Each structure stands twice: as structure tokens, then as C-alpha cells.
């Protein structure tokens, strides 16, 4: 009795199908565990706040959910929730863009110029050592309660997060590659745009993930210190009224906004780094 032989091209196709099924099962498993953890956490919190701890201080998920529904259907004490979200996002996005641009330009410039780097190093380190959140109060005095003070706080938080990565990325460029390009007649501008910036892109994009979170923190902290609208103002007013569900509701809205921004940045990173081969560890574990 002879064994049945499969066509040569059928084996790789079967392996690909098996690999796709394994990847799908892994995603289902990961998300199932995540959902179970969230349900367990919320359930234990609700149970504890109902029977053992004081919900006045700790609130509970059902009260937070009611607050969120109230904000999105009726409105907040400071007007529409969408107006407050738009104000916070506008401050965070503008601060993020200006801070990221300044961090990339100065980081690459100092990373490619040892003399400038040596001159500016003590000043950069001194500025980085300043507790930047405290500057939010100073910016309110300088720029008032308007949007400028929140943008300045977001800018100062984003700048250093991006600057150090851009600086290191510009320094990590392969010197042999640069020397070969110069031997072939490439100008300094061509070396910068075709070798240095593409090589530093991974470093810069990695910093942008955390930088937008810093921009949101800067905008919200600025609004807590003093503002006319925004999510930080809602949290500050909730604190003043001992409205614990309001504080949690503000935190949840900010978290959702940060996760949406993270998804957009991840999609942008994948598109810009499509040319880069996928590392083995990235195939197995993605957050």
C-alpha cells in the first residue's frame, strides 16, 4: 500500500494556515485574560465599596459609570464634556507637536555636532533636573489662565522626552556608512536626510509613544493649576466638591484619549518603518 504524497506547494500553505490559527488563538487567549482581569478588578472594587470600605472616599464602579453617563448625556458643571475634551486635546496636541519638533531638531543637531554637544551639555542637564510639573504654576503667572500656559507645560514635558532619544539616535548612526557616503561625494545635507534621519527614526518614534502621554499630563496639570475649561478643571472641581466619582470619570476619559493617541502613533510607526525587517521578539509579543 503506497502513501499519498502532497503537492510541494501544499506544505508551506498548510504551515501558513497553522501559524495564522496559532496567532489568532494567542490573541484570543491574551484578550480573554485581559478582560477577566478587568472584570475581577471592577467586581472586587464594587463588592468592597458596597460592604467594607466607605464609597464616599473610594467610590465604586457603578457610581463612576453613572457619572460618565451623566457627563455625556446631560453635561458637566463646566459645560459640554465634548468642549472640555476638545480644549484638553487641543492643548496637548499643540504642545506635543511643538515639543516634538524642537526635540528632534535640537537632538539631531547636537547629536551630529560634538562641539555644540559639549557646550550645551551642562545647560541641558540643568534644565532637565528642574521639576517641570512645578513650572505649570509659573506658566500660569506668565501666560494667564488661557491655552498658552497649558501648551507651555505640555511642550516642556515633551521636549526632553524626544530630545534625548533624537540625540542618541543621531549618535548611533554607523560611521562607516557616513564615511562611505562622503567618499562618494554626498554633501552634509544629503548625509543628514538620507542616512542620519532614517537611522534615528526608530529612536524618535519610540520616544513619541511616551511623549504624547506627557503632553496630556502637561495639559491636565496646567488645567488643574488654573484654567477656564478642560478635563483638568473638571477633576479639580470634583476634588473641591468631594466628588470622587467625578475624579475617576475624568481619569477614565483621559486614559481613553491616551489609548486612542497611542493606537494612532502605533499605526503611524508601522507605516513609516515598513521597510524595517520585523524582529523575532516583535513577532511573538506585541502590547
Describe the protein in words.
Pfam families: BPD_transp_1. It is found in: Cell membrane. Belongs to the binding-protein-dependent transport system permease family. The model has no long low-confidence stretch (mean pLDDT about 85). The protein is flat. It has a domain of about 200 residues: MetI-like (MetI-like fold), CATH 1.10.3720.10. It contains twelve helices and no strands. The longest helix has about 40 residues. The termini are far apart.
List the helices and strands and how they pair.
Elements: H1 10-51, H2 55-58, H3 61-73, H4 81-112, H5 114-129, H6 135-143, H7 147-171, H8 175-183, H9 188-225, H10 231-240, H11 244-272, H12 280-284
The rounded Rg comes to 25 Å
CATH topology of the domain at 75-272: MetI-like fold
Number of strands: 0
Given this structure, which CATH class of the domain at 75-272 is correct?
Answer: Mainly Alpha
Write a brief caption for the model:
The protein has helices spanning 10-51, 55-58, 61-73, 81-112, 114-129, 135-143, 147-171, 175-183, 188-225, 231-240, 244-272, 280-284. The protein is 81% helix and 0% strand.
Task: Output the keywords.
cell membrane; mainly alpha; 287 residues; MetI-like fold; transmembrane; NitT/TauT family transport system permease protein; 12 helices; transmembrane helix; membrane
